[in-house]
């Protein structure tokens, strides 16, 4: 399973990119808005905000040189298509994120015909995933954490989509999204997700184990002790 980071914060991407573990980035409007507003940026108009959004996508794509999902904000298919073309022109690694609804499916199939990669997002059922795959989506993003929030089992959806994909030879890659904690990452890997897109703080938590820290301290103190006894 490949690892993407789920953020629009360049500092977070830069830091985790340095670990050499990332193979892509996903963003969504909430994440971009959070990254820009928490950096204290202000905007004189909606156009200025949108221009900055495109700038951020360009900066991320330049940094990672790997797939970067950027989500359309339009809700009508023809506007989505136009917006998607603009976003795709930012960088060859931009993947267009579309919502899983009728308008998203129409737009997906047109973009797929144009050879533009689509990540179908907000997927909450196996049938939605099947439709997205048939519309030509390159990536499908089931939101496991939000399914868990409803009391259902998000990971079962990953297993079902993977099984359907394997039975029917579907090529779309499953991105486990809405990952909330390190256990989700392990479970997604076991369930057959091709990719997990993981928030910064969860990647940081994946690195840590108390026994690793204790082990490092013990090795160093044994070494110092031995040096003193030389
Ligand atoms: O990858 C989708 C993600 O950004 C949504 O996560 O935690 O808001 O459900 P969450």
Characterise the protein shown here:
It is a single chain. The protein is α/β, with parallel strands linked by helices and 230 residues long. 56% of the residues lie in helices and 15% in strands. It is built from eleven helices and eight strands. It has helices at 10-17, 29-38, 46-64, 77-88, 102-113, 126-134, 144-149, 154-168, 182-191, 200-207, 210-228, and strands spanning 2-6, 25-26, 68-71, 94-99, 118-123, 139-142, 173-176, 195-198. Helix 9 (182-191) links the parallel strand 7 (173-176) and strand 8 (195-198). The protein binds SN-glycerol-3-phosphate (G3P). SN-glycerol-3-phosphate is lined by residues 6, 26, 28, 31, 143, 145-146, 177-178, 180, 197.
Which descriptors apply to this entry?
230 residues; alpha/beta; binds SN-glycerol-3-phosphate; 8 strands; globular
Strands of the biggest beta sheet: in what spatial order? 1-2-3-4-5-6-7-8
In N-to-C order, the SSE pattern is: EHEHHEHEHEHEHHEHEHH
Q: Structural class of the helices, strands and pairings?
A: alpha/beta
Average residue-wise pLDDT: 97
User: Radius of gyration in whole Å, from Cα?
Assistant: 20 Å
Estimate what percentage of residues fall within beta strands. 15-25%
Shape: globular
Work out the helix count. Answer: 11
Number of E strands: 8
Helix content: 55-70%
Bound molecules: SN-glycerol-3-phosphate
Major sheet summary line: 8 strands, parallel, barrel
Pick out the low-confidence regions: none
Distance between the termini: 48 Å
